[in-house]
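pasting for the record
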Amino acid sequence: MSRPEDNLPPDLYYSASESHKYTTSSRIQSIQSSMTLRALSLLSLSSPSLILDVGCGSGLSGSILSSTSPSNGGPHTWIGMDISSSMLSTALERSVAGDMLLADIGQGVPFRPGTFDAAISISAIQWLCNADSSAEEAAPERRLARFFNGLYAALRRGARAVCQFYPRNDAQREMICGAAVKAGFGAGVLEDDPGTKNVKLYLVLTVGGGLAGGDVTGVVKGMEGVDVVDGRGRKGKRGLKVKEKKGSKAWIMRKKEQMERKGKVVKPSSKYTGRKRRVVF
């Protein structure tokens, strides 16, 4: 069975007719609703919050966020991002409550640091793994890095994000999780209905600083069927954190990543980054 991302880029695949068909399908509405409610439960929001809906489409998930009852911590305010103008037009026709932005998440998340209390994404981030061009900037690794770095910056300290996604294979799953961890998130992958054709994967992300003991993976650790992914801090033989030498390539790359997360312009890296120059007389 072919995957939608194998056919066309999302802005072309979701044409006006495809957007209408997607939005009016009772089967898709049911699946989208159950996945959104599952993601919302993993966010564990106890009060009305400002939520970023990544790949909001026609606003099916956003409608659920807006209609969440006060007893469940709602209603929530949401802002959506999507690359398909047709999907956003369909959302406007439905008069959804949230604000929406036409944007490519592979180019980053264009909001001020600490804007959102939480983020949600349903069936969107796997599209980042498809390169629509041979240009280096269009490589999946680059697009994933820009997205997760931007998302990390846009969330407040202690916030959570839940991304439901359909990886093509284990390699793609590891690439997505690795990009999230590299951006600074604590990450865990939760599988619903594992081993069946209805398996659903949820990437649960946390921004440090909001959990007891400073363990940013605490939101998912201990849950049944959760694979915790946490690559923060390389350790030596005795479990001691390896100190990077100032001026080394690893030190320079880490500093550049920190600057990118702050929204600063950073020169692209190359094979010469961090290489010592020979002394010439």
